[in-house]
Amino acid sequence: MSIQPGSYQGRIRLSRCVAHTPPSPHRGEDKGEGHDQGRDGALPPSELDGMVAIMVIAILVRWVLNAAALWIVAHLISGVTYRSIPTLLWTAAVLGLVNALIRPILLLVTLPLNILTLGLFTFVINAIMLLLVDALIPGFDVAGFWTALLAAVLLAIVGGLLSWLVRG
Question: Can you give the C-alpha Rg of the chain in angstroms?
């Protein structure tokens, strides 16, 4: 016979390990204890909507900052070119996706080399990500590997400075 998590016996066994508080007869009412949570601990839709809105705004700000950093790097390095501002925005979006999906895998695969170079190989991976985005986005061009490597270093510096300015 198995004990179900919501059963009375499960609560007794659980109470030996963790302090058990009995369910409130006022489900979902705010008693001044922080967030307005129901019995299951979930936030009400109004608070979730606010949190989602904040997350969406943070993603949009990050996207615009990355596009601005790409714009600055393109003006500093003659080998990085773009056709138009919409192309730059698409490039920033695709670079963000590539960095979120492919870069962690490459970092894991090259971890021994990254440790051996004290993290400097990360710039090589960032350069590869820029070259991949160059291949994916028509209108965004990087002249070659060394240009991509220099652009990756500058992109990290400029992106960090822009993020610091926005936060600070």
Answer: 24
Write down the residue that tokens 């990050």 correspond to: 62
Distance between CA 164 and CA 168 in Å, rounded?
Answer: 6
Give the up-direction half-sphere exposure of residue 123: CA atoms within 13 A in the CB hemisphere. Answer: 17
Specify which residues 80 forms β-bridges with. Answer: 142
pLDDT digits (tens, 9 = 90+) for 53-72: 899 998 999 999 999 999 99
Question: Among 91, 94, 92, 120, which Cα is nearest to 107's?
Answer: 120
Q: Where are the domains of the chain?
A: 63-167
pLDDT band (50, 70, 90) for residue 19: very low
Whole-angstrom Cα distance, residue 164 to residue 144? Answer: 29
Global pTM value: 0.69
Q: Which residues contact 114 (CB under 8 A, 6 or more apart)?
A: 107, 121, 122
In a 3-state reduction of DSSP, which class is residue 83?
A: coil
